[in-house]
């Protein structure tokens, strides 16, 4: 039983580092639910209690994966804001993400400042971000997002949630 549980946890850990976020979330939570349900079945004869334990662990695992994804997306947004902050309107500069946890693939693209929203006490800019995906084609395919960044002290920070919604779902 312990060997089987260890195998399930190893598979879950491997899946969480594979790259596809929906597969990662569902696979990790399913593996955790199965492993904890089996363990709970060995501890208690009450099917309701065993199912409750399995569902609880599954929900906790899913929440943990989603938390990690939100942190990664925040890192990526901050790295884009760091590149875009010093740019003037119309300037274009390349960006790429360097993720601290390889839960998702690194990305790259270009960013430009399309307009200055405000200056003074509240410095904010509207930016256009491209995310370039190189596939089997010879030309990269780009997706474009519009976002806002604002100065927070000496650093620029991502200031809008909307661009992340279609791209990353509710996991901003």
Structural overview:
The chain has 172 residues and is an alpha+beta fold. It folds into 2 domains: 71 residues, no CATH class; 83 residues, no CATH class. The chain is 47% helix and 24% strand. The chain has 4 helices and 5 strands, in the order αααβββββα. A 5-stranded antiparallel beta sheet has the order 1-2-3-4-5, with helices on one face. α1 packs antiparallel against α2 and α2 runs antiparallel to α3. The N terminus is likely disordered.
Could you tell me the strand content as a percent range?
15-25%
| Count of folded domains | 2
Q: What spatial form do the alpha-carbon principal axes imply? A: elongated
Spell the H/E element sequence.
Answer: HHHEEEEEH
Largest sheet: 5 strands, antiparallel
End-to-end CA span = 38 Å
Quaternary structure:
single chain
Strand order of the largest sheet: 1-2-3-4-5
| Strand tally | 5
Rounded mean pLDDT is 74
Helix content: 40-55%
Radius of gyration from the alpha-carbon trace, in angstroms: 21 Å
Counting H and I runs of at least 4 residues, what is the number of helices? 4
Q: Keyphrases for this structure?
A:
single chain; 172 residues; alpha+beta; 2 domains; five-stranded antiparallel sheet; 5 strands; 47% helix; elongated; disordered N terminus
Topology overview:
Elements: H1 2-16, H2 21-43, H3 47-84, E1 92-96, E2 108-118, E3 124-133, E4 141-152, E5 155-158, H4 164-168
Antiparallel strand pairs: 1-2, 2-3, 3-4, 4-5
Helix pairs in contact: 1-2, 2-3
């Amino acid at each position: 039983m312990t060997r089987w549980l260890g195998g399930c946890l190893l598979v879950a850990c491997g899946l969480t580092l594979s790259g596809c976020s929906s597969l990662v979330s569902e696979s990790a939570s399913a593996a955790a639910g199965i492993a904890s349900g089996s363990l709970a079945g060995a501890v208690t004869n009450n099917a309701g209690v065993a199912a409750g334990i399995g569902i609880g662990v599954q929900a906790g695992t899913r929440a943990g994966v989603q938390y990690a994804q939100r942190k990664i997306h925040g890192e990526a947004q901050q790295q884009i804001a760091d590149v875009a902050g010093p740019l003037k309107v119309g300037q274009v500069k390349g960006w790429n993400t360097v993720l601290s946890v390889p839960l998702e693939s690194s990305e790259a693209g270009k960013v430009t400042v399309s307009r200055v929203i405000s200056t003074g006490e509240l410095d904010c800019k509207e930016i256009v971000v491209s995310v370039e995906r190189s596939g089997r084609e010879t030309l990269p395919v780009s997706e474009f997002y519009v976002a806002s960044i604002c100065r927070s002290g000496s650093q620029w920070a991502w200031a809008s949630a909307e661009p992340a919604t279609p791209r990353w779902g509710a996991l901003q």
